[in-house]
Amino acid sequence: MWSNHIKYHWPMRTHQLVLQWIENQLSSGELALGGRLPAERTLAEQLQVSRTSVREAIRVLEAMGVVRAGVGSGPEAGTVVIADPTAALGSALRLHVATSHLPVADIVQTRILLESWAVARARTDSPALAEAAALLEKMEACPDTDEFLALDVRFHLALAEAAGNAVVSAMMGSLREAIQSYAGKLTANLPDWDATAARLRAEHREILAAIHNHDGGTAAGLVAAHIDGYYKEAGLDPKDSDPTRH
Amino acid sequence: MWSNHIKYHWPMRTHQLVLQWIENQLSSGELALGGRLPAERTLAEQLQVSRTSVREAIRVLEAMGVVRAGVGSGPEAGTVVIADPTAALGSALRLHVATSHLPVADIVQTRILLESWAVARARTDSPALAEAAALLEKMEACPDTDEFLALDVRFHLALAEAAGNAVVSAMMGSLREAIQSYAGKLTANLPDWDATAARLRAEHREILAAIHNHDGGTAAGLVAAHIDGYYKEAGLDPKDSDPTRH
DNA sequence: TAAAGGATGTGGTCCAACCACATCAAGTAC
DNA sequence: GTACTTGATGTGGTTGGACCACATCCTTTA
C-alpha cells in the first residue's frame, strides 16, 4: 500500500490511486517490462482524474526505477516500463544518508556482508565471472583514477551477479551508489593512489582465484578485508566488518 | 544524481532541480529530521519554478520516506522531514517484484541472509532484545492469526535492530513488506495454522535462547531454518538458504 | 469572558494554455 | 516513381490560475 505519511487522515490521495492502478496492471501482467502505459491524457480520462495527478504518480514511478518517460511519438515516446531497482534503492538510501538517519558506516558494513555472502556463493560457471576477469584485465592497463573506479564498480557488481540473486545485486549497487559522493572524498584522502591501486588489483586477483578454486570461505574473507581496508585507508573507520563472526 | 531515465537527452528536468535543491539542504544540515520545508508556493518562488514542479518533487520525496505533507496551519502543517527508509525500500522492491524483475525467491533468500547475519550479531544488552522477549510473550497468548503475524513482524524487526545496523534493519523491514501480499496468500496455504503457530513460537524461543547464550552460530542457523521452513510449508520453495555455506 | 465569524497560510486537485519533440502522411517538384 | 518539404498528430514538460479543505489565530459580538 502507498504510504502517504499523513497523520490522522486515511483516505488515499489521487496520485496514490493512480499508483495503485498502475501497480495492479504490473502485478496482473497487463503491463510488462518494455510495455507502454496509456498516454497521460488518456489515463487521466480513464481514471477520471486530472492529468496533474497522473503526472505525480509517474514521477514517483520514475524515481522507483519502474518507468521512463519520453516525449514525441514513436517507439521511445510515452511512459515505458523499465527495470532499474538499483537507481531507486540507491536514491532512497542516499536521501536517508543525507538526513543522517542511516549512517555511512552502516552502509559500508551492509555492503561487506552482502558482498561476502555473494562471493561465497558465486558460481564459477556464471558469465558474470568471465566479465569480472575481463574487467580485471582492463583495470591492470588503466592509469586513470576515475576510469579505474568505474571499472572497480563494475567488477564488484559482476561478482555480486555471479551469486545469482537479483535482489542482492540490486542492493549491492544501491549501497555503493548511496555513498558515491563520499567515495569521491575518500579517494582524495588516500595518501598514495598508485600504491592503493596496485594493492586493489592484487586483491581482486586473489578474490577471483579463490572463487575459481571453489574456496568460498577464503573469497568471503578476502572481499571483506578488501572493502574494509579501502575505507580504512581512506579514513573512514567502518564498523566491525567481519561477516562471519558468530 | 537524480536519474530521469530519459534516453539521449541530458538536461535536468525542473522537478529534479527541486529535488537536488532539497537534497542539498538535507546534506548540509540546513534541513533536518523534524524540520519543515518552505511552503510550496514559497519554494516555487525561491527557485523560480512553478508550484506544480515543486509538488512533483515532493511526491517523490514522500515515496522515498523523507517527507510527509500536512494541510492546514500549525505544527502538523506543511512538508516535514521524516525518516522512513523502510517504506521507500519496501515500495521499490514491491514494484520490482510486480514487474517480475525481482523474483520472490530472491527476496526470501536475501531476507534469510540478512536476518541470519543480524541475529549472529545481536547484542544481548540491546533494548530491542527485551522488546523481542515481550513480543514473544504476547504471541504466546495470541489466538488471532492476523495479530499473531503482526507481532511476528515486530519480533523479527526487533531481532534485526539488536544487531545495531540501521541499514540492515531498514532492509529487513522492506523485504518483508515487499512480499506482504504473498505472505497473506502463503498463510492461507498452510495446512494447519495452529500447528504452524506452535512451531513458530517454539522456534522463536530457541532463537532468543541462543542469542542470550552468546551462541550466534546457532542463532543464525535457527533463524534461517525458521524462515525457510515457514515458506516451504506454505508452498514457496525458496532458493538455497543456508547463509553460512562457503 | 466565551463563542462565533473571518482571515490567514498550508497542501490537494483540477483545468487550460502553450511548448518541445518525434514521427507520419500528404502534397509538390523533379 | 522518387525525394523533399510542409503540416498534422500525439506524446510528455512546464506554467499559472482557480478553487477546495483544513487548522489555526485573531477580531468582533453577545
Question: How would you portray this structure in words?
Answer:
The structure is a homodimer of 246-residue chains. In chain A, helix 10 packs antiparallel against helix 11. Chain A is mainly alpha-helical. The model of chain A has no long low-confidence stretch (mean pLDDT 90). The longest helix of chain A is centred in the last third of the chain and has 20 residues. Chain A has two domains: 68 residues, Winged helix-like DNA-binding domain superfamily/Winged helix DNA-binding domain (Arc Repressor Mutant, subunit A); 148 residues, Four Helix Bundle (Hemerythrin (Met), subunit A), CATH 1.20.120.530. Chain A contains eleven helices and two strands. Chain A is elongated and about 60 Å long. Chain A has a two-stranded antiparallel ribbon. Helices cover 65% and strands 3% of the residues of chain A. The structure holds a DNA duplex (30 and 30 nucleotides).
Which architecture of the largest domain in chain A would the CATH scheme give at its second level? Up-down Bundle
- Please report the total strand number of chain A as a whole number: 2
Kindly report the name of the CATH homologous superfamily of the largest domain in chain A: GntR ligand-binding domain-like
Q: Return the CATH topology of the largest domain in chain A.
A: Four Helix Bundle (Hemerythrin (Met), subunit A)
The biggest beta sheet of chain A, please?
A: 2 strands, antiparallel
What is the C-level CATH assignment of the largest domain in chain A?
A: Mainly Alpha
Q: Helical content of chain A, roughly?
A: 55-70%
